[in-house]
Description:
By secondary structure, the chain is α/β, with parallel strands linked by helices. The strands form 3 sheets. Strands 6-7-8-3-9-10 form a 6-stranded mixed beta sheet, sandwiched between helices. Helix 4 crosses helix 5, helix 5 crosses helix 6 and helix 6 packs parallel to helix 7. The protein is elongated. The chain starts with 14 loop residues before the first helix and ends with a strand. The structure holds adenosine-5'-triphosphate.
Amino acid sequence: MSDPNPGTEPIKAGAVGADALADAGSAEGSMISLRDVVKVYTLRDGTQVRALDGLTLNVPAGSIHGIVGTSGAGKSTLIRCLTALEPVTHGEVRVAGQDMTALRPRELREARRRIGMVFQHANLLDSRTTAQNIAYPLALAGVAKGERHETVAQMLDLVGLADRGGSYPSQLSGGQKQRVGIARALADQPAVLLCDEPTSALDPETTRSILDLIKDVRDRLGVTVVIITHEMSVVRQVCDSVSLLEAGRIVESGPIEEVVSDVDSRLSHELVPVPAIPDGSPAEGDAVIDVALTAHPGQPAAAHVLAIASEHGADVVGGVFETLGRAQVGRLALTVPAERAPGVVDALAAVGATAEVRS
Length: 359
Ligand SMILES: Nc1ncnc2c1ncn2[C@@H]1O[C@H](COP(=O)(O)OP(=O)(O)OP(=O)(O)O)[C@@H](O)[C@H]1O
């Protein structure tokens, strides 16, 4: 087990905080490894802003890792430090085996070719065709014309736009533009794809198709993906593991199924929120019990909970049941006459569910 914030007091120590980094991959064998990274900005008046505060993170090769955090948590700074666009104040940043903090300018340019970037908006060049947009970074990198042509055709095919190479950005939908952005990011065969809010500007259906594409690309090319997002639905749909960034530190982290199994963790609550209950509920004299359960294949838990609810005369007034990774996670809201609530909570605890009376 490793502390996600070595050398400092962990903010959240539970299973997610402590086990996570060991399970999310040790520094050895990781495609991305940040160790004790500190980034301090100094403002003109001399004020210091500690944007990253001892951040440690390991992302295993070939995985899709989500980073979530509120505004100002340090997400953009993290991306800039990962790509060495911003020097770190302290700590180590390794991408594809290279220490990004120790490279000379020429080596850094080469190292950056190993990192593809996808942004919220594809930022395509309007005066160039789809194919020319994808070829652009290859031309800058000095790739010969014939090879560029071949790569562009492969990339267009990969993102499902084989017949749109001659189209201009104005002739493409938002989702198609983002596909071109992904093709452009992958054209130079990066080892890592950094996606900064890649679906924030898209509708839910297009979001789904872009996330499916990212997953498909990972499966086919083996690229390691980091997705910065504020949308938990993105994490639910596509990520193998997730970290919660807060005030420049990773406060929770781990594979999705472990994170959601720790029902006390914030990520678990965010990924599978407590269900709403109908207006007028509970009735006079009833209590609401919030139940959280995790089941795995061969170890069912939901049936036990429902049997206990039925046995004690409780009603189910709200609920969600999600499959995330190999875990099935349930959140139920039960109503029961208040005097029976303690008995129901005890019975649920005995079958491994977490239950508490809603205040
Ligand atoms: N160039 C800079 N100079 C000074 N302070 C900065 C600079 N860039 C970021 N910060 C500060 O560092 C902290 C982290 O900012 P950052 O932009 O990394 O957060 P974020 O999680 O990306 O936020 P958002 O989601 O709003 O983009 C904030 O307090 C911000 O004000």
